[in-house]
Design a protein that fits this description.
The structure holds two protein chains of two kinds.
Chain A (H helix, E strand, L loop, with lengths): L1 H6 L11 H5 L5 H31 L9 H37 L7 H20 L30 H29 L12 H32 L10 E2 L2 E2 L7 H34 L7 H14 L17 H11 L1 H15 L8 H23 L2 H7 L3 H31 L5 H28 L16 H34 L67
Antiparallel strand pairs in A: 1-2
Helix pairs in contact in A: 3-4, 3-5, 3-16, 4-6, 4-7, 4-8, 4-14, 5-6, 6-7, 7-8, 7-9, 8-11, 8-12, 8-14, 9-11, 11-12, 12-14, 12-15, 14-15, 15-16
Chain B lengths: L1 H19 L12 H31 L15 H29 L7 E8 L2 E6 L33 E3 L3 E5 L4 E7 L4 E4 L6 E4 L5 E5 L5 E7 L11 E7 L1 H9 L10 H8 L14
Parallel strand pairs in B: 1-5, 4-10
Antiparallel strand pairs in B: 1-2, 2-3, 5-8, 6-7, 6-9, 9-10
Helix pairs in contact in B: 1-2, 2-3
The chains are: A mainly alpha, B alpha+beta.
Chain lengths: 581, 285
């Protein structure tokens, strides 16, 4: 077996001797995970503040004196870019991928710890380059997070001089960073699983992260070349994406390029990106539901295959973002069909989550509340995807607030609920401390109800026909005053949800110093990360001997067993009911 | 328990909001009722699924919440149930896809008797061109765009001479006649969006895109650019006025045609630039 050589490697790890070696230039996957998480959340806070500022302009136009159209477009652009790439992708793969893969698979670390360390520092560089764009002449780009040319690199768009260059450079650097991390995750999953940890015994968290990483390794290169080509168009005057045009009265030297080509490249990355965020969330939420319902995940094998099939299909649906782009309209038949087919494995996952709750023994812990809330918001966001994926139904809705509401519900709110659930769930293992339950619940109710109140009504502004990315609407005959009132309502809720995140930060930080000591396995969970010899787990994770795996990850409430969970490293007993895996 | 109650309240609250809130599609003013039908079907099917799955979850949350001494069932999978759910989901998906593709088939099929209106976008305004008496739009190219020739019409093309040019943001079209909208941009991406017409399409520099519809109600409608086109995006408004045929004819007659200055031909030749023609071949038939 291929994994045996690495998994059995008894070579002593070189433990760092200095504080800097342990916490700064660390090669320990758990420290790198925390570095990724803190950086991603920190830059995410910038994006959160930007969103509240832009909501002020939408809800109460003109209320912020400094909010010019330039600033508004810059804020929406950087908000979107940070949330999708620098927060969600980095947090789920760089953060949870790093923390969970070696621990859940019984490995000592990632297979390339040094490359893993580089991955984080290069990621940090990409974040700094992005932040730097706020301080260059003209500010960051205001081209919208999709950066569609020709507009993105022409006068008339904010940040055309420097902002767009830094944005494209930052993306390219991010992709370099991700590639170093991603190769690590895939190789570790394939090569460093401990004895007995077959692929079909892996927890779904690892499956989700594993498949998402493969998607990212295949999808990000499309964004990388698109960024490089646009950079050349901007700096050297090439014409990859630029046809001959007249920009504000000036004939420019471009000729023969195609703006649609950029859109194909962007969405060839951009659609898998949705699943790069969603699949880890799918996996993690499966484990949260199973653990806190004290019941095996329903239909494990189907869940694995659904992740794999969704991942594969996600490369064949990208042009559903382009139904009204002016591409050949006959593409619409194919992409509508492929898009709606992807709903079948996705629906199966939803059924299986709900069926995991069915006949469970549901503990309403804070992580569980977030997991259940995810099911609710994901059903909502998934179903509105059936509107936008279905070509002709998309036509009147494209580019309106219906789209904004849909993708925030499905890839903003839903994965972030999972991320919160996951942070609460694994916090005791990461820090060795327990958080405050009451504050956790207050944070949950504000976040869950608040975000639903923001995004559910927003769909109806889109149905009404309000286009997105409008600095202000002025007087428009078909938009009634009540729609502006609704926008003001949404803004008030958004400010409240934003402020309520302070409860989360207070809870996390104060618990780190003053929280009660956490037991090694507070949730009585089966997976390996809860079976480490000490908590937090030491460098190398397992002490002298690697754990050996005897069973799948979901032996909860096995009939006849003395406890309602049997960890994966407990040898077979007479009372076992062996699941086929 | 609190979670089950909140989810139940959100389910019924969402339904109430859907039926009671004042915000919904604007009244349709074109032939695209097939799109509205597809949207309605999608609302009914997805709405039913939304309520069914979530209510089932609410029931599970109440019925199976932790009790002292309670224990979960052990049921790793149920192949029969999973197969059935897959089958019925596929049926549901097909129910949505069929009306969607049916409407799209109409959308991509331009009626033979459609008249032609060209829409030209630039940062940040609209202009329009009718093909004139010959029914054919003259060829255009970005190379020809100048202060004297803002549409970039080929001055040597005889088909362009009688083209009727509408240089402000307001255009009139006749009610009840299918119209093919031919879209062109001089600079960046734009989107011709009139919510009441449902149909719409991007304007792409370097390409000629199109869509069609039949206006069904006389009235005044606002065009909103719906593809981010720079800092003035939100100001890129226009107006479509749907007239009865008589009013429309009278209005069209009063509009100027493209009358190139006598020297235009020389001016073009002296530039000596190889121009890639944007041809509207189908309009030449």
């Amino acid at each position: 077996m291929a994994y045996a050589t690495l998994a059995e490697d008894l070579k002593e790890l070189h433990h760092p001797k200095t504080w800097v070696g342990k916490y700064v230039w660390s090669q320990d996957h758990k420290v790198i995970a925390v570095q990724y998480m803190i950086t991603a959340i920190a830059i995410g806070m910038v994006a959160l503040v930007l969103s509240d500022l832009m909501r002020m302009q939408i809800g109460f136009p003109g209320s912020l004196g400094f909010m010019t159209p330039e600033k508004y477009y810059q804020f929406i652009t950087i908000h979107g870019m940070i949330m999708v790439i620098y927060l969600l992708t980095a947090l789920l793969l760089g953060g949870f991928g790093n923390f969970l893969i070696p621990l859940m698979l019984g490995a000592r670390d990632m297979v390339f710890p040094f490359v893993n360390m580089l991955s984080y520092w290069v990621y940090l560089l990409s974040v700094l380059v992005l932040v730097a764009s706020f301080f260059v002449p003209g500010g960051p780009t205001g081209a919208g997070w999709t950066l569609y040319p020709p507009q993105a690199i022409l006068p008339g768009t904010p940040g055309r001089d420097w902002g767009i260059i830094l944005m494209l450079a930052s993306l390219a650097i991010f992709i370099v960073a991700f590639t170093m991390g991603g190769l690590n995750y895939v190789t570790t999953v394939l090569q460093a699983r401990t004895r007995g940890m077959t692929l079909m015994r892996m927890p779904l968290s690892v499956w989700g992260i594993f498949v998402a990483t493969i998607l990212a390794l295949l999808a990000f290169p499309a964004l990388f070349v698109a960024s490089v080509m646009m950079m050349l168009d901007r700096l050297l005057g090439t014409s990859f994406f630029m046809p001959s045009l007249v920009s504000q009265g000036q004939h420019l030297g471009y000729n023969g390029g195609s703006p649609i080509l950029f859109q194909h490249l962007f969405w060839f990355f951009g659609h898998p990106e949705v699943y790069i965020v969603a699949l880890p969330a799918f996996g993690i939420v499966s484990d949260l539901l199973s653990t806190h319902a004290r019941k095996n995940i329903f239909g494990y094998r189907m869940m694995v295959w659904a992740i794999v099939i969704i991942g594969g299909l996600s490369f064949a649906v990208w042009a559903h973002h382009m139904y009204v782009s002016g591409m050949n309209p006959y593409f619409g038949f194919f992409f509508a069909t492929s898009t709606l087919i992807i709903a079948v494995p996705t629906a199966i996952k939803v059924y299986n989550w709900v069926l995991t709750l069915w006949k469970g023994n549901i503990h309403f812990t804070v992580p569980m509340l977030f997991a259940i809330a995810f099911i609710f918001t994901f059903i909502n966001g998934g179903l509105t995807g059936l509107f936008l994926g279905n070509v002709s139904v998309d036509v009147p809705l494209s580019g309106t607030y219906f789209v904004v509401a849909h993708f925030h519900m499905v890839m903003g709110v839903s994965p972030i609920l999972v991320i919160f659930g996951a942070i609460y769930h694994w916090y005791p293992k990461i820090t060795g401390r327990m958080w405050n339950d009451r504050l956790g619940k207050i944070h949950f109710w504000f976040t869950f109800i608040g975000t639903y109140l923001i995004y559910f009504p927003m769909h109806y502004l889109g149905l009404l026909g309000m286009p997105r990315r409008y600095y202000e609407y002025g007087h428009t005959a078909f938009i009634p005053d009540s729609a502006h009132l609704l926008n003001a309502f949404i803004t008030v809720i958004a400010l409240g949800v934003g402020a309520s995140q302070l409860i989360f930060f207070y809870n996390m930080i104060s618990s780190y110093f003053y929280g009660p000591k956490a037991p090694g396995n507070p949730w009585r969970a089966t997976t390996l990360e809860w079976q480490t010899p000490t908590t937090p787990a030491p460098h190398g994770n397992w002490g002298p001997k690697l754990p050996v795996v005897y069973r799948w990850a979901y032996d909860y409430s096995v009939p006849g067993a003395p406890e309602d969970f049997i960890p994966q490293n407990v040898p077979a007993q007479g009372t076992d009911r062996h699941h086929k895996t | 328990m609190a979670m089950a109650i909140v989810v139940a309240v959100l389910i019924f609250g969402s339904l109430a909001f859907h039926f009671l809130s004042p915000w919904y599609f604007t009244p349709i003013a074109s032939n695209w009722t097939s799109i509205d039908t597809a949207v309605d079907i999608t609302f009914w099917v997805t709405g039913a699924v939304f309520v069914a799955i979530n209510l089932f979850m609410v029931y599970a949350l109440i019925r199976y919440s932790h009790r002292r001494g309670g224990k979960a069932a052990y049921e790793p999978e149920n192949a029969k149930l999973e197969r059935r759910l897959t089958f019925w989901t596929a049926i549901g998906i097909a129910t949505l896809l069929a009306p969607g593709l049916y409407a799209w088939d109409q959308f991509v099929t331009i009626p033979d008797n459609a008249s032609v209106l060209e829409v030209v976008g630039q940062q940040w305004g609209w202009s329009f061109r009718f093909p004139g008496k010959d029914g054919v739009l003259g060829t255009t190219d970005v190379q020809y765009v100048s202060d004297d020739n803002p549409f970039g019409i080929n001055p040597t093309d005889p088909y362009g001479r009688d083209d009727v040019l509408i240089s402000d943001n307001t255009v009139h079209i006749p009610v009840g006649k299918p119209i093919k909208m031919v879209l062109r941009s001089k600079d960046v991406l734009h989107d011709f969006y009139v919510p009441q017409f449902r149909a719409r399409m991007n304007l792409v520099p370097g390409l000629v895109t199109y869509f069609w519809f039949t206006p069904t109600k006389v009235g005044t409608y606002e065009i909103m650019c719906a593809q981010l086109c720079g800092i003035g995006h939100y100001t890129m408004r226009g107006t479509v006025i749907v007239d009865d045929q008589k009013t429309f004819d009278a209005w069209l007659k009063s509009q100027p045609t493209f009358a190139p200055a006598a020297g235009a031909r020389q001016a073009f030749n002296s530039r000596g630039l190889p121009a890639t023609k944007v041809k509207l071949a189908e309009n030449r038939n």
